[in-house]
């Protein structure tokens, strides 16, 4: 469990675009419980169209690691499947 007052300390992200990682650390999920993390993304206003992905989709992946407090590295959790997992979010330009 985590205290919402310490939420900022759980996350690491340098705020840079494309290919960056968001690492949620120090989260313990009790048995028969779940933890949902939602990431909100926004393309900057007036962002050059040439800077967007050519395949017109944003790709996201997530990995659950075996050991907590390991800086989001090491062995992946064997009971999570698929792990890592991913999805693509298509977009259109109007």
Largest sheet: 2 strands, antiparallel
User: What is the terminal-to-terminal distance?
Assistant: 43 Å
Mean pLDDT: 76
Order of strands in the sheet with the most strands? 1-2
Helix proportion range: under 10%
Task: State the helix count.
Answer: 1
* Oligomeric state, counting identical vs distinct chains: single chain
Task: Walk me through what this model shows.
The model is unreliable at 9-16 (pLDDT under 50). The strands form two sheets. The chain has a two-stranded antiparallel ribbon. Strands 3-4 form a two-stranded antiparallel sheet. The chain has one helix spanning 7-10; strands spanning 11-12, 23-24, 57-62, 85-90. The protein is elongated. It has one helix and four strands; from the N terminus they run αββββ. It is mainly β.
Describe this protein with a few key phrases.
94 residues, two-stranded antiparallel sheet, mainly beta, single chain
């Amino acid at each position: 469990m985590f205290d919402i007052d310490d939420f900022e300390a759980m996350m690491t992200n340098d705020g840079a675009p494309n290919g960056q990682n968001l690492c949620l650390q120090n989260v313990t999920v009790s048995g028969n419980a779940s933890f949902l993390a939602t990431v909100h993304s926004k393309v900057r206003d007036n962002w050059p169209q040439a800077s967007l992905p050519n395949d017109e989709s944003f790709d996201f992946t997530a990995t659950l690691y075996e050991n907590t407090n390991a800086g989001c590295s090491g062995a992946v959790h064997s009971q999570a499947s698929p792990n890592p997992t991913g999805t693509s979010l298509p977009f259109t330009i109007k």
